[in-house]
Structures are given as C-alpha cells and as structure tokens.
Write a structure and sequence with these properties.
- There is one protein chain.
- The protein is mainly β.
- The chain has one domain: Outer membrane phospholipase (ompla), Chain C.
- The chain contains two helices and 16 strands.
- It has helices spanning 2-24, 182-185, and strands at 28-41, 54-69, 72-87, 93-108, 113-123, 128-130, 140-143, 149-162, 165-172, 175-178, 198-201, 204-216, 219-230, 240-250, 255-265, 274-290.
- It has a twelve-stranded antiparallel barrel with strand order 1-2-3-4-5-8-9-12-13-14-15-16. The protein has a two-stranded antiparallel sheet with strand order 6-7.
- A hairpin with a 5-residue loop joins strand 3 and strand 4 (93-108).
C-alpha cells in the first residue's frame, strides 16, 4: 500500500504540472473525466424468489493531455479504474482494478503518419485473490501492485488520420514484466523466471489502436487494443492481446450510465481469455479544453 500511495502522489504531481503547462501554452488539447458508480441490491430474509443483498462501487478516471507544435507532438494518457463489491455474509472483494499510463513523442513525416517513441505502464492498485480455493474457504494471493507490472518501450510509426483514431506499429518494443511481491510469486509467475523479479523481452513488436469519440449526443465511446509479439516465441498462442472499452452516456451534467469491459489473452497468465465487465449508474465529472493558436 505504501508503494501505491507514493506512486499515486507522483502521478498527481505530474498531472498538475501538465495541466499548469497547458494553461500557459495554447498548443495543448486536454480532456478529463471521472466517475463514481454505485450498484446496490437488497432482499428481506424471507424473500422466496432467492437473492442476496449486495453493494458495489466502481470509480474511474480518464485523462489526456496532448501537445502539438508544428511537426512535433506529445500525447499523454491515464486510465484508472477501481471498484469493489460486498455481498451479504462475505468479505469485500474487488470488481475491477486497472492502472494504465502512456506517453508518446511523435514527429510528423506526412499529414497522417508520425514517427514516434512511446512508454506505457500497466498494473493494478491493490491485492487480488483467488477466493475459496479449498474446502476450508482459504483465499490465495495471486496479484498486487507491480505483481505483475508491465513497462513497455516502443519505437515505430503511427497512423493518425483524425483526432479520434490512431494506429501504432512498433517493430521494436522491449517489455519488462515485474513480479515484486514474494507472496504472489509463490502462486503465479506471469512469465517471470523462477528466482527472478523481472522478465526482460528485448526482441518484440507491438501494435496499438485507439478510438475515442462521441458517437451520438451525450454518448462517448473509448476503445483501446494492444497486441504484443515476442520474436523469440513467435506463434499465434504466444501473442498477447489486451482490449479495453468504455461506453458512457450522460443523463445530465452530473449523472451518467457507464459500461466498461476489459479482456486479456496472455498465455503466460492463462490459456483462456480473461475478461471483466461492469455496468453502473453514477456521478460523472467531465472537463474538456480545446485551445488553438
């Protein structure tokens, strides 16, 4: 938890500097939205149809700060998601937990193409468990902050024909997988070799695609896809796929309905597709700023 708080403090300070700089430089384009969604159900003890009382809370924050000056561009993005659910008679459990940061420096080589260098980081905030794994109902720790954590560097070309769609092609994208919690390492390795806390994949490629746009009045859709290809383990089942989607519909200035989904295929973690999904009604705060010279 201490490492998480330190990391968040660094993130918030960096965000503050970006926002402050954006006020002074009119070549910045920035967006920010944060939401708090509540899910709740209640049943009396004699409810004959069956059911269990529960309460869930999901929070999310999406922020972008993009800079353009002539042929130079610098794009920054943060996606933070965290939620929990509490069923009657059970301990509180996580329902969603995602931390994604991305920064990209680009140089225009044509009207639609950029050469770029990028860095992105993917992990989660808190501990995750596999619940009730034996007859005694014991839980097993299987994840934590930086367990796993993925830090990826990429060099390549980006196709960006408009402000809401981009496709990055990176023939050289070294990735580092971190496994810093010894308790997690006893149960899951995430591709990190035994006895080590970091796995280095130097010879690899990455494909990234993103789409973010208001598809109708007060309805926003965000899609992100990432494929990671290790040249030394080149086979279809060894290609990692990550997909993230968020659909937000504003009821009014402060109330929204949101649908979020994440899907992962990573054979080092599991041979099947992993996914989560959440639907909620809650509070939305949005801030958009567009400034032109």
């Amino acid at each position: 938890m201490k490492k998480t708080l330190i990391f968040l403090a660094i993130l918030l300070s960096n965000s503050a500097m970006v926002i402050a700089q954006s006020e002074a430089d009119t070549t910045w384009r920035r967006t920010f939205d944060a939401g708090l969604n509540l899910n709740q159900a209640a049943f009396s003890d004699n409810w004959k149809a069956g059911g269990i009382s529960s309460m869930g809370l999901n929070t999310y924050l999406n922020a972008r700060a993009d800079y353009v000056n002539g042929k130079i561009s610098w794009d920054n993005e943060a996606q933070l998601q965290y939620g929990f659910i509490k069923n009657k008679g059970e301990d509180q459990r996580k329902s969603i937990d995602r931390l994604y940061l991305d920064t990209k420096y680009g140089y225009a080589i044509s009207s639609d193409w950029n050469a770029f260098f990028s860095v992105n980081f993917l992990s989660q905030f808190t501990k995750g468990y596999e619940y009730d794994i034996d007859a005694d109902g014991n839980d097993r720790l299987i994840s934590n902050f930086l367990s796993p954590g993925f830090l990826t560097f990429a060099i390549g070309a980006e196709y960006k024909p408009n402000p809401y769609f981009s496709l990055r092609l990176s023939p050289f994208a070294p990735r580092f997988t971190f496994l810093t919690d010894d308790a997690v390492a006893e149960n899951e390795r995430y591709g990190v070799p035994e006895g080590k806390t970091v796995r280095s994949e130097w010879l690899a490629a990455m494909i990234q695609a993103s789409y973010a746009r208001d598809i109708m009045t007060n309805v926003n859709l965000k899609l992100n896809y990432m494929a990671y290809i290790n040249y030394q383990e080149l086979s279809a089942k060894q290609i990692d796929h990550l997909f993230n989607a968020a659909l937000t519909a504003k009821v009014n200035d402060y109330i929204n309905v949101s649908l979020m989904a994440n899907a992962i295929y990573d054979n080092d973690q599991d041979s099947d597709i992993q996914y989560n999904q959440s639907l909620g009604l809650g509070i939305l705060y949005t801030m958009k700023g567009f400034t032109l010279r």
